[in-house]
Amino acid sequence: MYNDPNRDLKQYNTFGLKSECMGLIHIYHEDEVLEVLEKGLQPIKILGGGSNILLTGYVPAYILKNEIKGIEIIEEDEKQALVCAGAGEKWENFVTWAMSHQLAGLENLSLIPGSVGAAPMQNIGAYGIEQDSAFYSLKAIHLSTGQRKTFVKDECKFGYRESVFKNELKDQYFITHVLYLLKKSDYTLNADYGAIREILNEKRIIDPKMTDISDAVITIRKSKLPDPKEIGNAGSFFKNPVISFVQYSELKNVYTEMPSYKVSDTEVKVPAGWLIEKCGFKGKRYGNIGVHKNQALVLVHYGDGNGDEILQLAKEIQATVLNTFGIEITPEVNIW
Fold first, then answer.
1. Which of 63, 103, 233, 332 could be stapled to 182 by a disulfide with Cβ–Cβ 3.0 to 4.6 Å?
2. Is 161 one of the catalytic residues?
């Protein structure tokens, strides 16, 4: 455990926003969480990779920076392997590790920023899959009682960018380890997502390997999403809204080019980026902040701005989309 005397969170959030907290404590082992609780330090917030948060000012809490590392195979047979990863591991490194061990199931989630512990909290997903397709369980510590608990898949209540840890159990548990069941054989790669298929076709890859899928995903992400090292951002700021097929049909009569993805017999998902771009926000700059030129879903920080400015821009975008289309879009990013 390391109690960082520098309480500035700027280097720990990918927006690159200045913010301070009551205390910044780096956690390297799960037992150190119990040490913090024994000292009575409250309230507590958990920080992973900082790639999915918007800091709007001073954070009136002790921040526990999850630094728990380690990846190991717990059990395996000829078809699959149960892998345990420390919640402080970088997600990108974990996916790379899995592929280097010829374990399939996460390749479509390549290059997603953030930590392993944040993956189930957010139920991250991209290009045809979500992390819950390979999720097995996670280990966590209750931040009031210190009780250790293992959550199996059903208990996590995964949804579209949702889990129990973003709702009824928000800020109540410190996730220490996450377990994934990955395939060694008899698996089918998810190569049919539009943009992935296009790249594979361009490269004339007929029988793709997991590394081919990963490479295609990385190419797509780099072409659409800005590098936080070059310009502050937290990736996709909004969720793609799900609307009724009836509402979609009415809008389609007016906006004939409106894209959608079928969710059920009665609902469709509409790309939030398309809605925002249609409202004229794509590429717009407002002083120190703005909307990315290549992807309207991404709000950016050019430097010397603050989180409240970004929050106000987000609210303006939400109001404009609602007024224009009658569709409510909600943030994917956690706002502190």
1. 103
2. yes
The 10s digit of each residue's pLDDT in 214-272 is 999 999 999 888 999 999 999 999 999 999 999 999 999 999 999 998 989 999 999 99
For residue 207, being part of any structural domain is answered with no
CB 208 within 8 A of CB 200: yes
Q: Is 76 a catalytic residue?
A: no
The whole model's pTM is what?
A: 0.90
Return the CATH number at 158: 3.30.465.10
Q: How far is CA 108 from CA 30, 124, 125, 218, in A?
A: 30, 11, 8, 9
Mark residue 200 as left, alpha or beta (left: phi above 0; alpha: psi -120 to 50; beta: remaining): alpha
Distance between CA 177 and CA 243 in Å, rounded? Answer: 35
Structure tokens, 178:
């996450």
| Catalytic residue chosen out of the listed positions 89, 161, 214, 260 | 161
Helices and strands (DSSP H and E) totals, the chain: 9, 20
Domain that residue 113 falls in: 71-183
